[in-house]
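Working notes for the structural subgroup meeting. M.R. asked for a predicted model of this chain before we commit to crystallization trials. I am recording the input and output together here so anyone reviewing the notebook later can reproduce the run.

Input as submitted:
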Amino acid sequence: MNAIEHLLQRAEQLISRLETLLPAPLAEPNWQAVAWRWVKQGSQRQLQAVEHPHHVLLEDIRFIDRQKTEVVRNTRQFLQGLPANHVLLTGARGTGKSSLVKAVLNAYAAEGLRLIEVEKQDLTDLPQITQLLRQRPEKFIIFCDDLTFEANDMGYKALKVVLDGSIEHASDNVLVYATSNRKNLMPEYMADNQPIVDKGEIRQNDTIDEKTSLAERFGLWLSFYSFDQDEYLSIAEHWLQTFGIPMDEAARHAALQFYHTRGARSGRVAYQFAKDYAGQLQLKS
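Returned structure, recorded in token form:
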């Protein structure tokens, strides 16, 4: 083997090693699906079709009528090519924030609505995701569930770019719907309320404004609140009826005991009670 052949062989070996370090090209998604997850495995990244989406009905979500009306209206505007906003749903746990997004997909999938779930740690890939969707005829909601950030999260800035656009115009067929238990998405500290912090930042208000600015980039911001006892019992009754069980005095007492053990009244707890109670009755019979 002469020197040139040896050099070419070494170059081929080097290229092969470099190829293993480079991100693999994106696989073509299954565009027949209505929902996907953004999945990363090593250097592999793809939209993985959800074969069995969670079919939530809008009528099953109760006592959030105002929030439901606003989200449905915004989504219909989006589907009809009219101006529409990114949506942030914040507030108490188990009150229907995530279920509302799933129900909207279920209601409007036939009209071209699609859903892509992206985990917080993968938000840095949003530019690639939106580029993949830009030329598609469907309308896509990028769904970020239980969204919160720490001060050094890289996904924070990536999301800001998608919400506000950058030098490139934002895609007209993509909106972000996010849920969070935290109002401003970023942590807030006691020091933020102090006028002077020893060895801290001089212009502290700039830091506080930065923390609140991400939430303000969502044009539609809806708050969710804990249910009272009557609302909780009404939701429990609704779910019991789906199992063919009436809400008698025994069921009412069991529902109250159930939420006392959980320490919360919410739609999620009411549904969990209904499954538990219905399962016990069916097991006995």
